[in-house]
Amino acid sequence: MHALSLLPMAAVAFLTLPARGAPGGDIVLADEVFFTVPRTDRRLTVEKTGFAHTFWAHRGAWQRFHLEEVAPSASAVGLSSGQQVMLKAWTGGYLTDKGGRMSAKSRDTSASQVWTIKSADGSEGPIVSGSRVVLYSRHGAPVVVDDPEKPGRLAVRDESDVSRLELVIELARRRSTAASTTSTAPPTTTTTTPRACADLDAAGLASALSVKTVQLPSALRSRCPGFGVDTSCRHAFYAATPSNEAHALLYNDEERNATLLLFDGEDRLLRTRVLGTEEVRGLQFEPSGAHLVALISGGTNVWGSPSYFVKMEVPSLNIVWTKPVDGKRVGLEKWTPDNTDTIAVSETRYVLHSSGNCREGQWCAGHQGDTLQVVDAVTGEQLKDEGREWSASHSCKQMIAYNDNSKVFLYANAGDAYPQALEFRAKKAKSYYGGLRFDGWGNMAGRQGVTQGAIKADPHSSGFASVWTNGTEDGRPDKLYYAGIDSSVAFVNGPRELFPNSPGTEIGGNIAPLGPGRWLVAYNEAPSDLITDYLRIFYDNWNIPESVRLTGGRLAIINGEGAVVGEPVDVAALGAPFPVEINHLVERSDGLGWVYLDGPGKSTAKIVHLRCKRA
Question: Which residues, in sequence order, are CB contacts of 166 under 8 Å at separation 6+?
C-alpha cells in the first residue's frame, strides 16, 4: 500500500479570527455568557447529564450560561462586582455547590445555587465582557476552575494559585431588553428569541432562514473526467453538531487538495486545513462535538492508493491520528459513488459504509459490492472482526446513521440485484441484525428503482427516520419516500410516499429532526423525470439542467407518520438552493442548515442557516 499522502505541515494553513474577550461590551442580568479559563483557554461546560467541567474549548450551547438575578427587579440590571447571581445552564439546571464539587443537575433554586461574582483584581464597579472574574460560593469559598489534582475538574475550596480561580466572562447572547445605565460602551442590538424548532410552520421556515455567501480559500474542482473516479466536482461534505456552534465543510479544490474549513456560530471562518490529495468521502462530528472525523479515499483509479480516517480536535483541527481503513475484498480506490451518509461515528467507533470494486484475484473481481468497516475511535485501529463485506452487490447505494440513545448504527443498501430492494440492517456492539426491506426493482444490469437516500437518528427516541427516492420500472419518475424505523429494525411508520399528488419528480432528499414526532425534509423538485440512467448514481452532473439546481430547492415539514404539514417552502426562491448529489441537512446548536457550493471551478459557497431553538 502506498504511504498516506498527507501534506507536510508547511502546507497546512490556519486562518483565525481576532481574539475575543476584549473588555468593552456591557453585561446585563438576563444575558447569556461564556466563562473561559485564561490559563487553559478552556470553557466552563455543562453536559447533558449535568456534569460541569472545563475540559473543552468549545463555544456552543453547552458553554452558555443564563445570568439570573437572585431577587428579580422590574428593570434590567447591569452586572457589577460583588453581585449575587444564579447560573442557569442550557439543560435548565442551575450550577450548584454540591459539598465542594459542582454540577448543574438541579432545576430547583436554593442557596446552593447562589454565586457571588467579583472582579479578579478586587476592583469594584461594572463587570463587562472580557473582564476577569472569580466565583464564590454562599460560604465565601472560591471556585477552582482548573483543579491541579484533577485538571479540568471544578472544586469549591481555598486555592493559593489565583490563576486557577480566574475566569474571563464574555457576552454570548443578548437576552435582556435594556442595556445597563452604567455602560459607556455603544448599545448592543437586542436579538429576538427564535421560535422553537418543533413549532415551526411554513411561514416560520421562511422567516427563520438566512443565507451567507462565503469565499472559499481555493476554488472547487472543475476537472472531473470519469464516472466512479474524480467525482468531486459536485461533491462536498458538510457537518455540524448540536453540542457546540462549530460546523465544517470538506471539498476537493482545483489542485485536488482535500480542503477542510471550520466555521463558528456566526458562519465566520475559524480554521482551514488541507488533509491530503485524495477524494473527499465523508465528514462527521463526534456526538460530544469534541472531535471532527474525515474520510479521505479513492479518486486515483489505482489499486493500493490510500483510504484513511483523520481524527481532529475541535476547534484547533490538530490531528489526533490518521489511520488507513479498507477491506480485504472491496476497495474504494476505483469507485466513488458517495452517498449523503458515508460514515457514522460514536464516541467509541467510526463506521464506514460505502461501495467499491471487488479486488483483483477475488472471486467477485470486476463487480461492485458494499463494504462496512469499523475503527476504534480512540486508537484509530481497524477492528476487522467487526467489519462486513459484500452483504450487497451490483450497483449499490448506501446510507448509515448512529443513534446515541440506543447505541445503534442503522445502515441500508440498495441495488439492482442483491438486493433488488432497499434493505435496512443494524449494528450494535459486535452484533448485526435486521433485514427490513422496501421492495424496489432492478434489472441486474445497472438499472434500479432507488437512486438516493439518507438516514437520521431521532434524538428524542432510540430510533431513526429515513427518506429515499424511488422510480418505478415502468418509467414513473422518482418520488420521495419516508419511513420511521425503530432500533430493532422494524418499520414504525411507513414506508409512504410523501408527495403522491405532485405531478413532477423529487430529486435527492434529506431529513433532520425538528422535535418529537416532527421532521424537516429537504429535496429538489422538477416538472419531469430527469434521472434516466439509474446506474450513474451520484455522477457529477446527473445531466440535470442548471436551472433545476438553482430553482428546485424545497423544504417540507412532516409529522412522525410521514404526513406533510402545510405546503412545502420554495427555499430556492429565497436564495437558498439545496444541493442535488451529495446533500447534507444537519443539526446545528441553534437550528439546522446546509451548504450549497456555487459550482465546479467556483470560489464561493452559500451557508444556509435555519435558526430555531432546539428542544
Answer: 37, 38, 39, 120, 132, 133, 134, 145
d(CA 61, CA 244) in angstroms, rounded, equals 6
Dihedral class, residue 417 (left if φ above 0, else alpha if ψ from -120 to 50, else beta): alpha
d(C-alpha 320, C-alpha 318), whole Å: 6
The CA distance from 79 to 70, in Å, is 12
Write out the E strands in 231-334. 236-240, 247-252, 258-263, 269-274, 280-285, 291-297, 307-313, 319-324, 330-331
Report angle CA 270, 275, 279 to the nearest 5 degrees.
120
> How many Cβ atoms sit within 10 Å of the Cβ of residue 291?
18
3-state secondary structure of 397: strand
Residue 473's CB: how many other CB atoms inside 10 A?
A: 12
179-233 pLDDT per residue, tens: 333 333 333 333 457 899 999 998 899 889 999 999 999 999 887 755 444 456 7
**Cell numbers found for residue 378:** 480512540
Digit-coded pLDDT (tens) for 256-310: 899 999 999 989 999 999 998 888 889 999 999 999 999 987 655 555 566 899 9
Helix (H) or strand (E) holding 414, with range, is strand 408-414
Q: Which helix (H) or strand (E) holds 550?
A: helix 546-551
Strands 491-497 and 479-485, sheet pairing: antiparallel
- Summarised one tens digit per residue, pLDDT across range 73-121 is 545 578 889 989 999 998 889 999 887 788 888 877 777 889 999 999 8
Q: Which residue has the cell 419516500?
A: 481
Spatial distance between the Cα atoms of 170 and 249, rounded to a whole number of angstroms: 27
Q: What is the dihedral of CA 403, 404, 407, 409, to 10 degrees?
A: 30
- Taking the alpha carbons at both ends of the chain, their separation in whole angstroms is 47
3-state secondary structure of 197: helix
Rounded to the nearest 5 degrees, what angle is found at the Cα of 299, between the Cα atoms of 293 and 305?
80
Tell me the per-residue pLDDT of 595-609, one tens digit each, with 9 for 90 and over: 999 988 999 999 999
CB 600 within 8 A of CB 220: yes
| 21's grid cell | 474577550
Q: Which three cell numbers stand for residue 454?
A: 439518507
Q: How many CB atoms lie within 10 A of CB 157?
A: 12
Top-confidence residue, 524 or 582: 524
The continuous run of DSSP H or E covering 205 comes out as helix 202-208
Q: What is the spatial distance between Cα 442 and Cα 422, in angstroms, rounded to a whole number? A: 11
Q: Phi and psi at residue 63, in whole multiples of 5°?
A: -100, 0
